Automatic annotation (TrEMBL):
InterPro entries registered for this protein in UniProt: Anti-sigma_ant, STAS_dom, STAS_dom_sf
Family, per entry: Belongs to the anti-sigma-factor antagonist family.
MF term (GO), any: anti-sigma factor antagonist activity
Domain STAS: 1-109
A Pfam family the protein falls into: STAS
The protein's name in its UniProt record: Anti-sigma factor antagonist
NCBIfam families tied to this protein: ant_ant_sig
Database matches in SUPFAM superfamilies: SpoIIaa-like
Amino acid sequence: MKVTTHTTTDTLTLVLDGELDASSAVVLDAELNKPEILNYRKVLVDCQRLSYISSAGLGVFISHLQRLQDSDVKLVFFNMQEKVFNVFEILGLDSLMNIVPTEQEAQAA
């Protein structure tokens, strides 16, 4: 999996491309662990090219969620493919995580 980042003054966008599994979760975890991430108001996760997510991939987001919330950083997912969304939904994470259909909605969240 490839993680590309784009930044504006108050927003960090992570573009995920490929499969987020145990081996690639390390790359995402390193991105979310960077101290400067707490300088943003929002972390947006573009899931348009995310074709698969494993429990290890979900665990990365869950493990960082509280730290981001404690620092008033919103984590918002957008452009999620249906099969990836179904994994979030089955596990009840759709009510824990902020998931919206479009980038415009993510920016407005």
